[in-house]
Amino acid sequence: MNTMNMTLDDVKRVLAQAVAAEAGIPAAELATDQPFTSYGLDSMAALAVGMEIEDGCGLSDLPVDLLWDHPTVDSLSEALWNLMNTVPVPATADGQ
C-alpha cells in the first residue's frame, strides 16, 4: 500500500494489527478504545509496535513516548495520521 494515500482507517488497521500481534490476540478482538496496558503491552512491546508502525505507515524517528502519550489505537491512529499528513512550511527567502 502506498503510504502517501493511507486513510485514517488504514492507519488504524495497521496499528490494530501490530498491537494485536504483540498482545497475542486476533486484531478483530482488539477494542480500539482500550488502553494498550489493558492488553499487557510493556515498554518492549511498545518498541515492537513502534517498528511496525514505522514500516506499515512509512514513518521514521517516531517519538519514543508516542504510545504512552496516545494510549489507545483510536488516539494513536489519529496522531499518526496527522503526522503523516503534516506538510512542513517552507522557509521564506529571507529565512523567516
TrEMBL record:
Pfam families: PP-binding. Residues 6-84 form the Carrier domain. The keyword Chaperone does not apply. Keywords: Phosphopantetheine, Phosphoprotein. Gene3D superfamilies: ACP-like. SMART domains: PKS_PP, PKS_PP_betabranch. This is Acyl carrier protein.
